From TrEMBL:
Alphabetized PANTHER family for the sequence: SULFUR CARRIER PROTEIN THIS
The protein's name in its UniProt record: Sulfur carrier protein ThiS
NCBIfam families: thiS
Species of provenance: Actinomadura macrotermitis
InterPro entries referenced in this protein's UniProt entry, alphabetically: Beta-grasp_dom_sf (IPR012675), Mopterin_synth/thiamin_S_b (IPR016155), Thi_S (IPR010035), ThiS/MoaD-like (IPR003749)
Organism classification: Bacteria, Bacillati, Actinomycetota, Actinomycetes, Streptosporangiales
CDD domains in the cross-refs: Ubl_ThiS
Length: 70
């Protein structure tokens, strides 16, 4: 299936969840998703729902990382 992640088209296998996509974007290292938020089709997805939220063809996922600074 084709989805848009952070504005870039990607081809992903069917059944890919928000959690899978976030792991792919963040490198999947333990703790890498700390400080990360996800929005699917302009709606924030709670972290507790990432694994149970499948992506569908033509979905738009934004993976946002909190950055500290001034």
């Amino acid at each position: 299936m084709k989805v848009i992640i952070n504005g870039e088209p990607r081809e992903l296998p069917g059944g890919t969840s928000v959690a899978d996509a976030v792991a792919a974007v963040t490198g999947g290292a333990p703790g890498a998703a700390s400080g990360v938020a996800a929005a699917l089709n302009d709606e924030v997805v709670r972290r507790s729902a990432w694994a149970g939220t499948p992506l569908k063809d033509a979905d738009r996922l934004e993976v946002l990382t909190a950055v500290q600074g001034g």
